[in-house]
Q: What sequence folds into this?
């Protein structure tokens, strides 16, 4: 259902986003809480430890958790304000159904469940099982991720299940699997401290993972040289030794040129390459023509800076390479990741102290969420759904016949395309807001229009849920026990601080009830989250993401356990590859050729400007939670078009002037923020907003052929100043001075 | 008689080059029950058009606090731990003398209360041995509360400075600014 049942303003009036501010004197009971619950932030992959203060079943504040080893009490603005998502006026307190002309009205659980189950059965009987699809989210705990994967395959019996990690970590996951046979950051972050050189590629750490900044700068205090690769002068780049302001979409050319430089000047670890890797020769053959001059022309970076960076990297004794969405959100995201890995392998600096490599997972459970089987091609333990042995093992764990296990399904954006083609008629989603977070949002909206039935499990009525037939009121992170896995690969405990308010239910109980009504109750009998985790442990046993030796008690006793942890007595694995035994079929780390290719869309006469997208420090992903927290919105009330003074002059754009930004997919109007901290040929818009403020109206649906990640980070746009200066914003300091 | 467990060995260190402008300190400061959701620490862009550099301004807790010296109502006091307290609500007359006089631009008058409000180095926390909230949450180490030994070990390339030159005036403070190694003072003008 895509047309809204009532006008959007009526929906906003009832369901928000409403800005929640703490009372002037704080919530009652904050100074004398019933308990301080040691848990973790619900936002990014850092999973910072935090204590939630609870009074009479309400979260009333927070207190830093000094003992948690990663962040030692440190938090970012989102973490400081995260407690305000509890006690929120927009919180869904009962199931809702769509009524034309009225909006969304409450209904009881039995009716909501009956309607949902009957629609699932109707659609599957009429069109086949795979016509009902499921979209999941990586804000879910490991237990819920596992449960969703099992629910889709065993209860829904559909192959079409995917998750919003598809927009986040899949390029890194695919690259890591190709190179190492295992998908995890190779080190925990304490290995950063004594690294001599740190490369940060496409990761705006200070705004998107602020607490990681501490570790990078700790290294700088020990003398580390920092190389930042980003089209913008991000806060981390401000004091970097080298800032490589790469033209969006040309990263692989840069890594290729750096690799060639290492080869030409023999800055290689021959012993490591000869004994522990394969594919070196064809990889360097692929970059044999990548001279510094060529790279300068392609990437727009001064060749001397590229040389300096390659020299620093080549001569270092210890090093760490980190990357994130900036290089992964591309139609060649996997190639970009492999280009980075090639630099690490060529110098052999992995698997020893202070030598590391890793992607920084963006979402709260971005790491764990991509291991336990709610990806379209995956089974628990990061197993492959197409692999007969893997299918057999998981079928046994689940007590089903292997031939009833669905095969590989469609990825998130492909599900939208299949809805357009009429192949998928029904959708159930949980903790995913594709209307804001997927590219080409007008196309996504049209897909929702074509669905015969859409049911959404969520705690707020997000922009996508406004198009649902039924909404099942689910739970916040602090309302269920569970575990997540941080970007370091550390499995940690999420504690239940409060119970869901009103008639809202926990996500787990909703999924279990649906499974029961779909006739598979015997496969879904769990007493609590720990019981689900214990089954997950068994399901992951022997897989690359092996959690078998991790228990709730161990996690609490040891402040988290690093997987792989195959046995109860195993200490866990903070640093991978110390034994040089990689998880690839031949046991070696694989070099992979990563030649430069053009992005999916390049500039031309009609669309002459490069557009890239990203995030700001006070907002998180599609903003479902952070656009409802008053002070986080005040900090960045709206998306701005960052543009260099030279380009602004060329178009006659003034500071705060409204600019119409158009691409082949749509147009939006954004106030200009004229800053020297961006490349002269590139503009930037953060993507956390919806509707007319959405950057993803503009972005393309070009997918990486391997990872199926959309190309959020580069497309071609056209700028048109509208001769109107935007009203002053509440928070004027976010802008350049006029 | 000191009834607090204020740790006299711990000091406040501000390292501007580490500030990432995230405002975690501001949001955390505002959470304090006594602040009425107002932040008493302030993060500002230096010149956003040219750079992402931000500065963070916290009360410097001067040895000889000019804000207290100019207060006609004797509303501002310094205690035995060197903390310069915010205006005593029963005394403050909202005249803004302190706002004008502070060389660091710290005190702010909150018009809705007709009252000056400023940082007290989280006295509710530091007096019971905890660290100030802003320095606890700061994700990048721009704010640090700890011992001189700790900061020297952590930041071998910087020196804490707490002597500031304003023309012919020298202002010494309890709060330190991290400066390039070997610095002894910061000349403002």
A:
């Amino acid at each position: 259902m895509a047309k809204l049942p009532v006008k959007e303003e009526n929906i906003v009036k009832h369901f928000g986003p409403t800005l929640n501010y703490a009372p002037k004197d704080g919530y009652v009971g904050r100074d004398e809480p019933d308990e301080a619950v040691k848990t973790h932030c619900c936002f990014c992959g850092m999973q910072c430890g935090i204590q939630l203060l609870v009074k009479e079943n309400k979260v009333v504040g927070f207190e830093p958790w000094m003992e948690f080893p990663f962040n030692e009490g440190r938090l970012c603005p989102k973490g400081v304000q995260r407690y305000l998502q509890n006690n929120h006026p927009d919180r869904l307190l009962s199931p809702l159904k769509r009524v034309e002309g009225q909006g969304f009205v409450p209904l009881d659980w039995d009716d909501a469940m009956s309607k949902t189950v009957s629609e699932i059965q109707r659609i599957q009987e009429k069109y086949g099982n795979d016509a009902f699809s499921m979209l999941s989210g990586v804000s879910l705990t490991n237990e819920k991720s596992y449960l969703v994967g099992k629910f889709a395959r065993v209860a829904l019996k559909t192959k079409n299940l995917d998750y919003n990690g598809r927009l986040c970590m899949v390029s890194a996951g695919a690259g890591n699997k190709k190179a190492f046979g295992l998908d995890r950051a190779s080190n925990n972050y304490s290995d950063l401290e004594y690294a001599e050189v740190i490369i940060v590629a496409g990761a705006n750490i200070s705004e998107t993972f602020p607490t990681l900044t501490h570790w990078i700068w700790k290294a700088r205090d020990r003398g580390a040289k920092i190389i930042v690769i980003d089209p913008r002068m991000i806060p981390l780049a401000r004091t970097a030794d080298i800032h490589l302001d790469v033209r969006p979409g040309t990263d692989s050319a840069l890594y290729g040129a750096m690799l060639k430089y290492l080869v030409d000047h023999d800055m290689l670890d021959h012993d490591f390459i000869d004994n522990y890797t394969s594919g070196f020769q064809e990889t360097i053959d692929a970059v044999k023509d990548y001279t510094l001059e060529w790279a300068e022309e392609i990437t727009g970076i001064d060749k001397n800076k590229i040389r300096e960076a390659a020299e620093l990297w080549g001569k270092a004794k210890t090093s760490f390479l980190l990357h994130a969405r900036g290089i992964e959100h591309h139609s060649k995201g996997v190639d970009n990741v492999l280009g980075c890995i090639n630099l690490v392998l060529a110098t052999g600096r992995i698997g020893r102290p202070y030598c590391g490599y890793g992607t920084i997972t963006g979402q709260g459970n971005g790491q764990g969420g991509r291991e336990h089987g709610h990806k379209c091609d995956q089974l628990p333990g990061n197993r492959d759904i197409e692999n007969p042995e893997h299918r057999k093992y998981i079928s046994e764990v689940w007590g089903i016949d292997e031939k009833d296990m669905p095969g590989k399904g469609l990825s998130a954006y492909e599900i939208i395309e299949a809805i357009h083609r009429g192949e998928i008629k029904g959708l159930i989603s949980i903790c995913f807001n594709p209307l804001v977070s997927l590219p080409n949002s007008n196309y996504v909206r049209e897909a929702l229009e074509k669905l015969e039935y859409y049911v959404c499990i969520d705690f707020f009525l997000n922009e996508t849920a406004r198009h649902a037939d039924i909404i099942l009121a689910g739970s916040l992170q602090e309302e269920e026990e569970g575990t997540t896995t941080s970007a370091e690969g550390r499995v940690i405990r999420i504690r239940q601080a409060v119970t869901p308010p009103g008639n809202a239910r926990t996500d787990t109980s909703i999924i279990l009830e649906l499974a029961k009504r779909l006739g598979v109750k015997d496969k879904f009998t769990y007493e609590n989250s720990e019981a689900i985790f214990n089954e997950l442990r068994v399901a992951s046993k022997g897989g690359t993401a092996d959690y078998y030796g991790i228990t709730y008690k161990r996690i609490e006793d040891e402040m988290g356990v690093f997987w792989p942890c195959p046995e109860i007595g195993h200490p866990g694995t903070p640093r991978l590859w110390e034994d040089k035994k990689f998880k690839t079929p031949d046991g070696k780390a694989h070099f992979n050729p990563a030649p430069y290719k053009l992005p999916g869309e390049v500039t031309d006469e009609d669309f002459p400007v490069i557009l890239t997208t990203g995030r700001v420090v006070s907002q998180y992903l599609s903003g479902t939670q952070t656009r409802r927290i008053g002070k986080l919105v005040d900090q960045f009330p709206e998306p701005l078009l960052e543009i260099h003074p030279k380009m602004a002059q060329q178009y006659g754009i003034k500071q705060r002037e409204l600019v119409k930004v158009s691409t082949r997919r749509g147009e939006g109007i954004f106030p200009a923020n004229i800053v020297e901290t961006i490349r002269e040929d590139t503009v930037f818009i953060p993507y956390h907003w919806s509707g007319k403020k959405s950057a993803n109206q503009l972005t393309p649906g070009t997918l990486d052929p391997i990872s199926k990640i959309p190309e959020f980070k580069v497309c071609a746009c056209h700028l048109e100043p509208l001769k109107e200066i935007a009203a002053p914003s509440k928070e004027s300091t976010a802008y350049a001075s006029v | 008689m000191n009834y607090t467990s204020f740790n006299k060995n711990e000091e406040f260190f501000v390292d501007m080059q580490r500030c990432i402008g995230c405002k975690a300190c501001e949001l955390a400061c505002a959470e304090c029950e006594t602040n009425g959701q107002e932040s008493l620490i302030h993060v500002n862009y230096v010149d956003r058009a040219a750079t992402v550099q931000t500065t963070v301004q916290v009360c410097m807790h001067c040895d000889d606090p000019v804000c207290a010296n100019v207060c006609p109502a004797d509303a501002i006091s310094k205690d035995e731990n060197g903390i310069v307290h915010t205006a005593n609500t029963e005394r403050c007359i909202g005249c803004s003398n302190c706002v004008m006089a502070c060389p660091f631009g710290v005190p702010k008058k909150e018009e809705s209360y007709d009252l000056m409000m400023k940082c007290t180095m989280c006295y509710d926390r530091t007096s019971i041995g905890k660290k100030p909230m802003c320095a606890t949450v700061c994700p990048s180490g721009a704010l640090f509360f700890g011992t001189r030994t700790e900061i020297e070990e952590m930041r071998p390339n910087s020196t804490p400075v707490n002597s500031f030159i304003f023309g012919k005036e020298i202002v010494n403070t309890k709060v330190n600014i991290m400066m390039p190694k070997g610095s002894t003072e910061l000349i403002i003008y």
